[in-house]
Amino acid sequence: MTTCSRCQKARAVSYTTFEAYCETCSLDVALTLLSACRLSDKAIAALVTAGWDIPITTVRHYTATDIALELGVSAQKVGKTANAHGIKCEKYGEWRLDQAANSRKQIETFHYNDQGKRTIAKLIRGNDQ
Ligand SMILES: [Zn+2]
Description:
The chain is of the alpha+beta class.
């Protein structure tokens, strides 16, 4: 029997090129890898609901609708402002695949980070923020 190369205790059930993991360590490693991919808020909620208590490094993100509600403008205005000022880039957020509201199609939408949100707010409200 091969012993887990991580905890050195249990029997290994999965193998990578360099390591052999027992069942518990396999899950730990898999979740660590997943968390490094910046899980979406939905995925995190699903994991938490399923009873996982894991530290996840994630950045709070906002959709155009979230920001629009906060600013009291339309989501279209947020999107237009973002496009006009080249906000939809890595510095201000990330593209994610979302389920379209009225169909089974997956659409790519931009999710703004805190800096993106602040920048949009400044552009829409003026510089007095
Ligand atoms: Zn182990």
